[in-house]
Amino acid sequence: MTVENTQVQMRKGILEFCILEIIARGEVYASDMLDELTAARMIVVEGTLYPLLTRLKNAGLLDYTWKESTSGPPRKYYTLTEVGQEFLHQLRLTWEEVSDSIRIIRQKPHLNGTATPPHQ
What positions does the domain Transcription regulator PadR N-terminal occupy (predicted)? Predict the structure, then answer.
């Protein structure tokens, strides 16, 4: 077990949440999502993002529209559906609960130095 593996798993666990938060602000192009995630130090590649967007779309959380581009082929812009907005609301509540739990655990004082008895 390495710290890097655990860090990757933690990031994967919140990736959907981050993507939904980005899309919740308005229509967004996948490339712009990648840029924002990278800027936020959430290392994501196209091979991860596009299947996830497809899965979220198939689950009814996202919709998209094609828009003409002045610099190439039409682009697919994503938006949240009503179901996606409610889903994100529930994720936000869960995030607050998890954040509070972690804060409580991390703020608990250290033990007074006594050793834990060996396992019998």
Answer: 19-89
